[in-house]
Automatic annotation (TrEMBL):
InterPro entries: AMIN-like. Keywords: Lipoprotein, Signal. This is Lipoprotein. The lineage of its organism: Bacteria, Bacillati, Actinomycetota, Actinomycetes, Mycobacteriales. Residues 1-18 form the signal peptide. Pfam families: AMIN-like.
Length: 210
């Protein structure tokens, strides 16, 4: 279903990641912090989609593009420039939000869904994400920025009191950027906020009312 600019989604009690602990850090191994979240017992199966428009949603015609959009035989069209995911961070004094920040111009399709296994695009092996629930966040039509230049994922590890176990943000493959969030609980409420003017999308998590 299409998600509005602010949306309270399902029960996802994440309370998200400490900003000061390994924010934006690149790692070459899992470095998992399972805490008391060992074992998959997620009770959620929902998925959500939306569009984030950053900069100029319809970018200007690339330099060198013919006015009529056609090319003579042998001519090479200019490369398409996609919006760039610059960072994945933990924000908020309550450590309850994961923020994705983009630059550039264009429209980015995003989706968030609970998955049983954190499979990456084009990979046979799963991502080493610990948690009772795993929330997979995909951005299509986006490349990743310099922080991923080494090819390793960005790894965010919260404090032991956080309801999020860990976050893995992977470099884009074929203009698809993927992030996996492992949660300490199997029952959640997620709120998704987009701020096109700032080029951000924020996933906030709160504990469900009992």
């Amino acid at each position: 279903m299409q998600v509005p600019v602010r949306m309270a989604a399902v029960i996802l009690s994440l309370a998200v990641l400490a900003a000061g602990c390994a924010t934006g850090e690149q790692i070459t191994g899992p470095g998992a912090r399972t805490g008391d979240a060992s074992g998959m017992s997620c009770e959620r199966v929902e998925s959500f989609t939306g569009t984030l428009r950053v900069g100029i949603s319809a970018p200007p015609r690339p330099t060198g593009m013919p006015a009529d959009g056609t090319f003579a035989p042998g001519e090479t069209p200019p490369a398409v420039v996609y919006p760039v995911l610059d960072s994945v961070d933990i924000v908020g004094t309550d450590e309850d939000r994961v923020m994705f920040t983009f630059s550039g111009d264009g429209s980015i399709g995003w989706s968030a869904r609970f998955v049983a296994v954190a499979f990456r695009q084009g990979e046979d092996a799963s991502a080493p994400v610990s948690g009772r629930c795993v929330l997979q966040v995909d951005f299509s039509g986006a490349d990743t920025g310099e922080v991923w230049s080494g090819g390793a994922p960005v790894y965010l590890s919260p404090s032991s009191t956080s309801e999020v176990v860990e976050v893995f943000g992977y470099p884009s493959v074929n203009h698809l950027a993927q992030t996996f969030i492992g949660t300490r609980t199997g029952t959640p409420v997620v709120t998704v906020d987009s701020a096109p003017a700032a080029g951000t999308l924020e996933v906030a998590v709160a504990t469900a009312s009992r």
